[in-house]
Each structure stands twice: as structure tokens, then as C-alpha cells.
Amino acid sequence: MKRYLLFFFIIISNDILCQKIKSQKGLSLNIVKKIDFSSVFNSTDNQIGDYIIKSLENKGIAVSDDERYFISVSFGWKYKRSTELEIDNFKGFIIDKKNGEKVVAEFSLSKIKNLKQSINLLVDNLLHKNNLVGEDGKFIDIQDHFMKMNMKMWDSSRPDSHAPSGVDADHVHTKGGIMIGYKFISSQGKGSYNDDTRYDRNKIFSYYMRNVISQKIDKHSLEIMYGISNFLTLYSNLSFFKKETSYESLENELSNLFTSGFGDIDVQSLYSIISKKNIKLHSNFGFIIPSGSIEKKNKLNMMPYSMQIGSGHMSILSGFTSLFQLKKISGGFQPIYSFRVGKNSRGYAQGNLLDINYWVALKLTNSLSLSIRQNYINLKKISGADSDLNKSLMIINNNNNSGNVLLNSSLGLNLAIKKGVFRNTRISLEYSVPSYMSYNGLQVGSFNDFILNLQYSPNGHKNH
After folding, report:
1. What's the CA dihedral at 417, 420, 422, 428 to 10 degrees?
2. Cβ atoms < 10 Å from Cβ of 204
3. Mean pLDDT throughout 55-65?
4. Taking the model in full, what pTM does it have?
5. Which of 111, 124, 340, 456 is the most buried (most CB within 10 A)?
6. Is the dihedral of CA 398, 399, 405, 410 positive or negative?
7. CA distance linking residue 411 with residue 433, whole number of Å
8. Is 11 strand, coil or helix?
9. Is 136 exposed, middle or buried (0-12, 13-18, 19+ CB in 10 A)?
10. How far is residue 301 from each of residues 214, 312, 379, 390, 397, measured CA to CA in Å?
11. Given its phi and psi angles, is residue 435 left (phi above 0), alpha (psi -120 to 50 degrees) or beta?
12. What's the CA gap between 355 and 444, in Å, rounded?
């Protein structure tokens, strides 16, 4: 008799508990397989996930990246005032990663007034209701569950969810999302090439008075992204250049040219067109504002074209960026066309540029990925000429030695830091070498690039 009374009491108490939850807090909780709370847990890297992890830790439950159970959470917003948003609801599920990544529980909560209290209530009831679940519960099929929950599946916390470090303006943010980035590019080229043929010293001196040995360009960039709306993101890039050219005279006297300064400003609007389970697509449209100097001189002489810091004229950018994401592999494609508007005050304009990037990345761990990228560049010749430059002095003074078709190949590493002091930071490294070169006229060629990119999103990955 006591056994029946105990069974009856459990059923009644469970029903009362569910009714109380739903009526008072808008919480719905369904556990379909008993959860082992002595195992390790982790959660989606967003505000709700952080609070759930904190609540579990406060109850002595282990939390680590090497988890058995993963809690996937999404949430919705409402306007508190006409311009302020606050979290109004969330929903999620618990995945048992050690058993075929099956869903063992689902939950949702609406009409939130106090977020931390609501999450503590969820965890309390999760622990309580789990004690009432027998060992014969059934798993939910995860693919079907994804569709039922209608959740946004793109995982922005993955190390490969962004493009490799050599690609700019590769993602968008939701409203209020911010990203601050620093990028360093060191490019070194040597030798003189016409088409893909290298010219030796003696042949250069049959045309020019000086032989350019090498060029080095260091570029430091500050990148800022801001989500104006859930569909429109503003991107800006301001760069500082340090340039060095080494050359020799016919008498073997070695000399160097040096310039430095802030370059042109790149401003783009990125509009989200598609944002689905495995694919994203946004447009890239913007301008290059001519803020860099084109008046750099070496004592009294005007510096060559490639040693100037800016272009001196406006350019229009247009293109798009597409991304795909599978379980272990991701990739993307970004064609950008730059159209030069008018000539600068020195009577010339840089050539129009078609710049195409495409890449694939392999997710090695939750924090590390490996990428392979190729960059196709088709740069047209300089239009016009600077009358103060002596074309016969050296190859970089001659405007006819401009324009090229290049294909560069890059290998990269991408690291996403999810915890600790540097949480919500991305570090990307790339090394690039030329796979194909075709130069129009004699130019410094065979450039190798090293790229370091640091990105920080104060609000974490939930905003992009």
C-alpha cells in the first residue's frame, strides 16, 4: 500500500510542479532521458548560456570544454523602451555528446522579468524533475528537434566561422553588435619581373639607371564593425603603412627609400541577404576615402608610385561574401571590385581592381581550425602619370610598369578564445606565397605575406 501511495504522490507532485512552473514563470521543461549530473557540462557561448553555467557551478556541477552534456540555447528580445532591448524569452535543449549527440531534455521560458532568477529557477527544476525520470526514457531525434525549435543553427563561436585573416569585411552583426580588430600584414618582394620572367641585374641596367633589389611593406590596420540593425552592419578600416625600397646603382652602391603614414580609409556597408542553417550571404558596398598622402618626397625628389601612402582619389567598392558551415568543414567566397573615380591632384589614378578570395577551413577542435585560401588579383594599369617622376631612373618610377594578374595561396590557423581574460577574442595567422604571377611591364615581384589578425567582440559571439 505504501508503494502505491508513494507512486501516487510522485505523479501528483510532478503535475503540481509543472502547473506551477507554467503558470507562474512561463517555464516549460521536458526531460526524456535521465541526465547524469555527475558528468561534465558546457553551454552555448552567449549571455543565457553563461548564466546557466554559473548556476550549475554554484550547485557543484562540473563545467568544462571537454563536456559530456552540451546545453544549446537561443533567445529573443523585446523593446523595454523605444530604443532599449532586453531579453524576453529563451529556449534550448541538452545534448548527450557521448551517446550519438541525442537530445535528452528541452526547455523554454517566456515573459522574463529577472533573468538570473529565471535561470536559477530553470536549473532548480531541472535537477528536481530529473530525479523523477526513470532509466527507460527515450531520446529525441536531434534533426527533427532542430526543425521543431526553429533555431538559428549557424555557430558563430566556432574558430572557423570567420574567414581567414587575409579577408576583410567577412561577416555581419546583429543590432548593437560590435567588433574591434587589429591586423598586421608584412609583405616582402624581391627581384624584377616582366610577365612571369625574372630579369637579371645587367638587363635592368640596359633600361634603367638603378636596379630595385627588394621592397618591404608593413601595414597596421584598425578595423571596427557595428550592427546598425539586424541586417545592416557598418565596417571601417584605417591603416598605417611603413614602406622600404632597396636599390643599387651601376657602381654597386646600395641605397634605401623610406616612407610612412596613415593610408586611405575603407568604409563599407554589409547587408545580410541570407542567414540560414549552413549558409550566409551578405553584400559588400562602400568607398575608399583618399586620406593617405601622395606627396611623399625623398629630400627634394618625389617618391615613386608604390612608395606613396594613399591613392589621392575616391574608389567605389562592390561585391558580396558567401559562407558555408558543415560539421567539421567551412568555407567561403568573396569577390570585390574596386572602381577608381577620377584622377588625383598629381594627374594619375590607380587601376581598377578585381580581388577574389575563396577558402576552406577544417575545424580541429572547438577552439582551433586550419584554413587554406587562394586570392586572385587582377589589377589594371595606372591611368595617367606623375610628371615629376623620371621614368628612366628605376622601374617603380614608370607608370607603364603597373597592373598585374596574381594568384596567391595561403595557409592559416584560427584560434577562438572562449574563456579567461581574453574571452571573445579571435587570433588568426596566415602565410601567403605566390602561385602564379603575370606582371605588366617590369615590376618588383614574388611577394610573400605574413598576416596576423586579432578580433574582439565585447558582447561575445551572439551578435554575429
Report:
1. -20
2. 20
3. 88
4. 0.70
5. 340
6. positive
7. 9
8. helix
9. exposed
10. 20, 18, 27, 10, 11
11. alpha
12. 19
State what percent of residues in the chain have pLDDT above 90: 62
Mean pLDDT throughout 268-273?
A: 97
Rounded mean pLDDT, 121-146: 69
Phi, psi of 183 (to 5 degrees): -130, 135
Supply 294's cell numbers.
Answer: 601622395
Q: Is 121 helix (H, G, I), strand (E, B) or coil?
A: helix
Fold of 2-149: Double Stranded RNA Binding Domain (3.30.160)
Q: Quick one: cell of 95?
A: 545534448
C-alpha to C-alpha distance for 295 and 259, rounded to whole angstroms = 11
Domain locations in the chain? 2-149, 178-463
pLDDT, position 5: 42
DSSP-assigned states of every residue in 57-78? HHTT--B-SS-SEEEEEEEEEE
Angle of helix 115-130 relative to helix 2-25, nearest 10 degrees, comes to 160
Task: Say how far residue 110 (Cα) sits from the centre of its chain.
Answer: 32
Provide the residue type at 92 as one letter: G
pLDDT of 220-246, one tens digit each?
999 999 999 989 999 999 999 999 999
pLDDT score, position 217 = 98
pLDDT tens sequence across 356-410 = 999 999 999 989 999 999 999 999 999 999 999 999 999 999 999 999 999 999 9
Q: Which residues contact 78 (CB under 8 A, 6 or more apart)?
A: 85, 86, 88
User: 212-236: b or e for each residue (b if 16 or more CB lie within 10 Å)?
Assistant: bbebbbbbbbebebbbeebebbbbb
Angstrom distance (rounded) from CA 262 to CA 279: 36
438 backbone dihedrals φ, ψ, rounded to 5°:
-145, 100
Give the mean model confidence (pLDDT) for residues 125-131.
87
Across the range 88-98, mean pLDDT stands at: 87
CATH number of 178-463: 2.40.160.40
Q: Are 264 and 290 in contact (CB under 8 A)?
A: yes
